[in-house]
Write a sequence for this structure.
């Protein structure tokens, strides 16, 4: 009888399914045509554009591509990245590509429905302009991430339907033109940081963020490492300076003058130096790696103690430790050695843990939580610490680089010194002022970017765009691991482990200037999307 009832019910349902019935909108369900109807809808749509930035694979990829492909870091579970023996099937390439396009889709949908449209239910017209600016910035950000990683990609400026999924790759220069257009239009309508409500809108895209990203985009196109690329344009150095000066003129940002490491703690979030950071929080009811609102990058950067928590895939190299000048306070604020970490993570029974599979002796101190804070979270993969994307020191150093390339070495030294003076923290005996000119000055700027921004995802792109990737990773190579010892007084001795210098012998240029497009995307296109050379 039960089976008969089910069959009868199914027949009744199927009989009622006329085409008209199937086209009916569910009661209470919003569609893309009924959405974007009021102020609340616009906020929800804008929030959706940010969502790929929170996804754990997306941040995982940012750390892998930016750090562990370089002399700054090692991924203990993906040594192919530092060896440059990876291929186009590596899953993080796929996630990066797909989440960037997911963000672009959300931005395109908002722009189609909101930009220049008279929406009777929207009462706050300034809000309407603002969310358009947020969507344009984020679309530009996602495209910039891809053009750095992959070169030219399909340029999609509207929400495509199935029949329209036949896009080919645009050139990188076309992608850069669109990025600049979006950012300039975003900067024209976005509020300054101080004009947002700090209780409700902290972390939203600002005018300053749009100007800062314009600086980075222009520097990328002007940098000598891309001299063979069709988008290379040295005139962009002057444009980078113009955008940087407009950013400085806002009067919204300054270098943080307290303890350097405090900038990377919960308490230091969205500070005076922060131009753009991704907002995370500990949401105890959301469990698992995939469904929470926390920063999974913390979990991946803190040393592995042999159990599931924390996991510690990424470690900083001995070469990065050696890169800091003697007495530079940023070294101990940026790197934590494995013995130091173990001593800070003594178990409740007094057991001192051991860092497992310790490949280098160091970890990234900018992604760190105390043992007490870590286990106090509702989900230990749910770190509340924000991801810092653009800081003022980053823009100061790019401005110094642009000044150097446009013959303003004096101004380049001024902005280099601003960063070194902050790092000096009042100790005149360390980090002497750079007085050199010529190549020595440029090398000093490059050095400062490495130590100031280490572990923040900038290193790979910096090496590529300045043409130093092969020299630093293959020709010269780098030291991976240090020997560590406790001194008994709370200090540690760091020395050479005697291991040979690592050289990325499989690294090839120009092949490794860009990563491979995900092979699945190439295959799915039926040949319309052509793979990068060499993969």
């Amino acid at each position: 009888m039960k089976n008969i009832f089910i069959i009868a019910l199914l027949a009744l349902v199927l009989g009622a399914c006329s085409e008209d019935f199937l086209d009916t909108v569910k009661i209470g369900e919003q569609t893309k045509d009924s959405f974007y109807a009021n102020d609340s809808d616009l906020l929800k749509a804008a929030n959706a554009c940010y969502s790929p930035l929170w996804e754990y694979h997306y941040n995982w990829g940012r750390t892998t591509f930016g750090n562990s492909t370089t002399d700054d870091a090692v991924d203990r579970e993906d040594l192919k990245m530092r060896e440059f023996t990876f291929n186009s099937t590596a899953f993080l390439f796929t996630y990066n590509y797909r989440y960037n396009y997911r963000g672009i889709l959300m931005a395109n949908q908002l722009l189609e429905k909101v930009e220049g449209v008279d929406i009777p239910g929207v009462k706050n017209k300034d809000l309407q302009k603002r969310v358009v600016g947020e969507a344009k910035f984020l679309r530009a950000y996602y495209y910039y991430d891809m053009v750095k990683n992959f070169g030219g990609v399909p340029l999609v400026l509207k929400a495509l339907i199935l029949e329209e999924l036949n896009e080919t790759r645009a050139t990188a220069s076309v992608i850069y033109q669109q990025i600049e257009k979006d950012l300039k239009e975003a900067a024209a309508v976005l509020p300054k940081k101080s004009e947002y409500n700090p209780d409700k809108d902290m972390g939203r895209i600002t005018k300053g963020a749009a100007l800062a990203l314009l600086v980075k985009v222009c520097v990328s196109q002007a940098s000598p490492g891309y001299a063979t690329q069709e988008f290379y344009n040295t005139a962009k150095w002057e444009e980078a300076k113009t955008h940087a000066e407009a950013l400085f003129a806002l009067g919204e940002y300054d270098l943080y003058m307290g303890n350097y490491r405090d900038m990377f703690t919960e308490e230091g979030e969205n500070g005076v130096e922060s131009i753009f950071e991704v907002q995370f929080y500990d949401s105890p009811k959301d469990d698992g790696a995939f469904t929470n609102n926390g920063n999974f990058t913390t979990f991946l950067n803190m040393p592995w103690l042999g159990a599931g928590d924390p996991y510690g895939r990424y470690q900083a190299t001995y070469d990065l430790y050696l890169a800091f000048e003697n007495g530079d306070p940023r070294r101990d604020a940026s790197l934590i050695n494995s013995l130091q970490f173990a001593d800070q993570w003594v178990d409740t029974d007094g057991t001192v843990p051991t860092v497992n599979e310790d490949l280098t002796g160091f970890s990234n101190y900018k992604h760190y939580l105390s043992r007490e804070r870590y286990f106090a979270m509702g989900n230990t993969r749910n770190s509340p610490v924000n991801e810092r994307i653009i800081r003022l020191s980053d823009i100061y150093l790019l401005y110094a680089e642009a000044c150097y390339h446009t013959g303003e070495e004096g101004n380049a030294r001024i902005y280099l010194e601003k960063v070194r003076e902050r790092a000096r923290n009042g100790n005149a005996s360390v980090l002497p002022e750079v007085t050199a000119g010529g190549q020595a000055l440029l090398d000093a700027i490059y050095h400062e970017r490495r130590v100031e921004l280490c572990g923040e995802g900038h290193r790979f792109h910096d090496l590529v765009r300045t043409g130093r990737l092969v020299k630093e990773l293959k020709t010269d190579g780098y030291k991976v691991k240090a020997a560590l010892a406790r001194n008994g007084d709370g200090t540690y001795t760091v020395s050479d482990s005697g291991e040979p210098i690592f050289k990325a012998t499989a690294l090839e240029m120009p092949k490794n200037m860009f990563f491979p497009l995900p092979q699945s995307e190439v295959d799915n296109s039926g040949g319309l999307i052509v793979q990068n050379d060499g993969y």
